[in-house]
Amino acid sequence: MSETTTRLRAVHGDITTLAVDAIVNAANSSLLGGGGVDGAIHRAAGPELIAVCRGLGGCESGEARITPGFRLPARFVIHAVGPIWRGGVHAEQELLASCYRRSLQLAFEYGLRSIAFPAISTGVYAFPRERAAPIAIGTVRSCCAGNPTLREVVFCCFSRDDFALYRSLLSAPGASSTLSS
Ligand code: APR
Q: Whose CA is nearest to atom 29 of ligand 1?
């Protein structure tokens, strides 16, 4: 049985600087850009990105689409549309988990070896960060078990608070990031 080691780690910084196979964008359903990390990624990728996104026809919440990274160090951008937090009684948790799951499925389909996620939905979309982080980590862990290609998942934290939260969750007892297939 081949051993698949998927390393999960947190970094503090700007996702547009990461030279990974794919960075994930916290997009909106139009896929036509916005503020926050969406704005940063479009600025760094250059105008070709919006031109390609115009042809995608949008994306519903919980889903993801992949495009080239253009001028970014990352080869690809995976645009995931997170849920808007409305009190936690509109399947927000399931939709957030779906963003991570669908992004990873695209990474597997494309045979990617590394991927970086921002803290999807925890900015403008107001998903409480302390609820979002365990969903993010738990979904990534369960999806990566047994995958043949993905070697590294980076949780790119823009704020110090997020970085401290992800590091504590990733270093919790039993939080082995080595998975065997
Ligand atoms: N690198 C990494 N993370 C970043 C960056 C960056 N350059 N810029 C912002 N972030 C972080 C925020 O601090 C937050 O933790 O990304 C997380 C998600 O925040 P938002 O970008 O506001 O995304 P979200 O909450 O999912 O809201 C999406 O905002 O920008 C619009 O078009 C976007 O309508 C969509 C909505």
A: 124
